[in-house]
Amino acid sequence: MKKGFLVVLSGPSGVGKGTVKKILTERIEEMCVAVTATTRLPRPGEVEGKSYYFKTVEEFERLVAEDAFIEHVTTYGNHYGSLKSEVRRLIDLGKIVIMEIDVKGAVKIKEQMPEALFIFVMPPSKEELERRIRGRATETDDVIKTRLSIVDGELAMADRYDYVVVNDEVNNCATKVEAIIRDEAKRRLN
User: Fold this and answer.
1) What is the rounded radius of gyration, in angstroms, for the C-alpha atoms of the chain?
2) Torsions phi, psi of 132, nearest 5?
3) What average pLDDT score do residues 79-107 get?
4) What φ, ψ does residue 120 adopt, rounded to 5°?
5) Pairing verdict, β 163-166 and 117-122
6) Which residues, at least 6 apart from 92, have a Cβ–Cβ distance to it below 8 Å?
7) How many angstroms separate the Cα of 57 from the Cα of each of 46, 47, 80, 179?
8) How far apart are CA 168 and CA 145, in angstroms?
9) Whole-angstrom Cα distance, residue 117 to residue 123?
10) CA atoms within 13 A on the CB side of 164
């Protein structure tokens, strides 16, 4: 059985990572999502164990103490973490594991799994990014301002990734990312 690998997809909030990830999991048969844990409240339509593992702060802190995460971070007042056991299990099954994660989390993963494939999704402009975030209508104005205040720092991290893809149009972006992943899968077979 071939061994899988990890794909880390990141970029600023609102850039379209989630939509690109959804398209990729529909197009690439062997791709799957590593579900992460969070202390934030579920958004409408999110499902426990599928969208996230929703944890209390106490449960999350216990997992941190047990070194159960490949990475964990506090963003926008909530804790997020990727369970080591989940990622390794899927890779060992020959899956291409895709993780949609912020830039801080990606840096931590790179320290532990430098062999992973790191792809940064870039917005066409900061103005377009703000339009997309506001268009979601899922956050308060204060949360939006907080997210926008860190965009420059996130964009400055793009040079730490293996690839940077601009999300000018989501299907076009997904097609470019898909080509990168398929090329990587072929390269790893040799």
Assistant:
1) 16
2) -65, -45
3) 91
4) -100, 125
5) parallel
6) 3, 4
7) 19, 19, 10, 39
8) 22
9) 20
10) 14
- At 64, the amino acid letter reads V
Q: Dump pLDDT digits (tens) for 120-176.
A: 999 987 776 667 666 666 667 776 666 666 778 888 899 999 999 999 999 999 999
Whole-angstrom CA distances from 137 to 43, 71, 107, 180 are 12, 29, 29, 32
Instruction: State the amino acid at position 95 in one-letter form.
Output: K
Question: Residue 119: how many CB atoms within 10 A of its CB?
Answer: 24
Rounded distance between C-alpha atoms, residue 11 and residue 106, angstroms? 10
Q: Amino acid identity, residue 105?
A: G
